């Protein structure tokens, strides 16, 4: 079974033993044995492994993993060192530069953010090569809904950064008044000019954290 190695194990224990999750496991066994699936099965839960429940300061929600070879490694929008940043990530870096004046990063790996308390969570955690949204509707959304609900229960304020329709659909689970929601269009080239560029999510997130006595995130990479 799943072993995240931190408090998420207990928090999500009911999810990981539920009938729908066992069905999802069977689906994934078939998919990984018959198709090329991303990320590597050992990387599926990296977002939860790297950012423990009590350490979460901000959540960035993505759609599903990158569906090209060598890109996805379990953190939304992130690619490993040495991999060319995909267009959405390039747009995120352009907005980071415009918002905070930080240089555009050379590497697309966002592990540094995760280790500072930024939960980089996709709404669906696996994908078939070359087929975006191919694992949508098979149970992952139930798990990621549960993650958002559990974070909503936390007393310490969290910033939820929602980019695009799939992420914004989770807004219904963020009801506690202490939390902050920052939402905009998706950074994809198809939509970035319709509200993502100029949205200044990084400075807004840090301003909220500082107002609540929480140390800001160093967004440089």
In short:
It is globular, with a radius of gyration of 17 Å.
Which percent range fits the helix content?
Answer: 25-40%
Number of strands: 6
The general outline is: globular
Gap from first CA to last CA: 34 Å
| Tally of DSSP helical segments | 9
Strand order of the largest sheet: 3-2-5-6
> What radius of gyration results from the CA coordinates?
17 Å
The proportion of strand residues reads 5-15%
Description:
It is a single chain. The protein is an alpha/beta fold and 221 residues long. Helices cover 34% and strands 11% of the residues. The chain has nine helices and six strands. The chain has helices spanning 8-11, 13-16, 19-34, 46-50, 87-100, 111-115, 140-152, 165-168, 201-211; strands spanning 37-38, 58-62, 118-122, 127-128, 159-163, 180-184. The strands form two sheets. The protein has a four-stranded parallel β-sheet with strand order 3-2-5-6. The radius of gyration is 17 Å and the shape is globular. The model has no long low-confidence stretch (mean pLDDT 96).
